[in-house]
Amino acid sequence: MHYVDDRYHLNVEFDTKQCELPDDELTRMQRSLEQIGEAVKHFPSSDLGIMCIHHPRSNAYHVEAKLKLPGQTLFTSDWDAYLDSAFQRCVRKLARKLEAAKANPDRQAGRVAERRAELDRDIVAPTDPDAGPLGEAVRRGDYLAFRNALLGYEDWIRKRVGRWVQRYPEAQAQIGRGLAIGDLVEEVYLNAFERYGQRPDEIPFHSWLDDLIDLSVRSMLRDPDEGRENASFARTLRETPLETK
Predict the structure, then answer these.
(1) Are 149 and 125 in contact (CB under 8 A)?
(2) Which superfamily does 2-103 belong to?
């Protein structure tokens, strides 16, 4: 479904896979997008694409959002057993990204984008998740190989995690008091390893990783002891030298 909201100069495209959107559900979704419209109405034109995907095997919904603005494009996504929950979180995350982009314009955004593109070219996440070094590592259940293949993202993820933590006062208060940035970084990698098979092909790899940061921070806050234990084990595995014969 495509429509244009002239109030905000916003073009909206809804697509679905393995599911349908009832009229009442679609109406609620359109109302929820008004916050995005208010945020982009000063632009001459903006394009928002929403993809709603149902995964019958896991009985879960995946909602993806792609907002094209003059000079930049924002991506976000979320998963949930309920379509509305996944959609609402996805929209809220997109609104936060948009707010941050407007409030903190980065003069080096072009160079950062180029660097991210270089990273994506260096570490190609193939269409078939069973192909290539990342997919092969996931297929073998080899987290160490998966982690090592993504070393080029280390500094970028660490900086993104640091900025994201600032949005969660409860997380920021725990940094240095049992919770470390390194634990959160490792949690992002662990989530990437677990969810690699569901990575949307059309979303750049760095954008997909960026979406996992929010999931990882919230997961650590829900169960910090288990999260730290998992992250610590993963780091130990990564830092253990290989035996030589």
Answers:
(1) no
(2) Ribosome hibernation promotion factor-like (3.30.160.100)
